[in-house]
Amino acid sequence: MDDDYYRLEKAKWQEKGKGFLMKLLTININSIRAHMASFMKIAESGEYDTILVQELKVEDQVFPHIVFEHLGYNIKIYGQKAWNGVAVFSKHSIEDTTRGLPGYADINARMMECVIDGRIRLINVYMPNGESVDSPKFPYKIEWMQHFTRHIAPLLNSEEPVLIGGDFNVALEDRDVWNPKQAQGSSITAPAAREILKEWLNLGWQDCYRKFNPDTEKAWTWIGYRFKEEGQRLDYWLANTAAQKLVSHCDIDKRPRMDEKPTDHCGLFLDF
Predict the structure, then answer these.
(1) Fewer Cβ neighbours under 10 Å: the N or C end of the chain?
(2) How many beta carbons lie within 10 A of that of residue 182, not counting itself?
């Protein structure tokens, strides 16, 4: 794929909608070092004002800050060796940063919360996978999501716009999985995990992708390396009541997954 593909897309968006306050992307990079070339295309294009990144798989002290110094992004990271890790890149100020899920003792770097430009509260999450419903890791997944439920409850009707973005490791509906029968027993489609995500939506959090793409099928944000027809919708933007009034579009950016050496996730972008 041509190295200028993001720059061309940026020019198109600038012409189409100069009134956008901010264009945001969430992407699971599946190792920032292994997929540095692909991620640099995104960052160097300048198309996205703010980028939420999951699965850095690198510790804070060895994060390659120097590579991004010339790009004009402020960067906050919460890293972990070989696993997990989240980061926020923004052309605007990043303030009031919290690393980790407040009130929950967790050795894993899965969440970062911050305020962008003094105007938008962002929560960047890489929720536990859980492997399968029979795995000893599955109770941790559910417990983590339950604690997250309590954390976001007071934010739903806050006057402050709040956006939650990231890899939730949950496929909400059967249509969000390439083969629902094959996925039975998976933690991704587990009823207990789905019920928690549905609870958030029923309470009033908005699934931004489905708001603007209610009928789209095969809306994969994760696509397997071995078989490209195997996909799942695992990545989300959720908006609280205040933010819902300001979100103008949300869709999947497939370009990172189509790169020469790609992550296994597509990006999910949001116009705010």
Answers:
(1) N
(2) 11
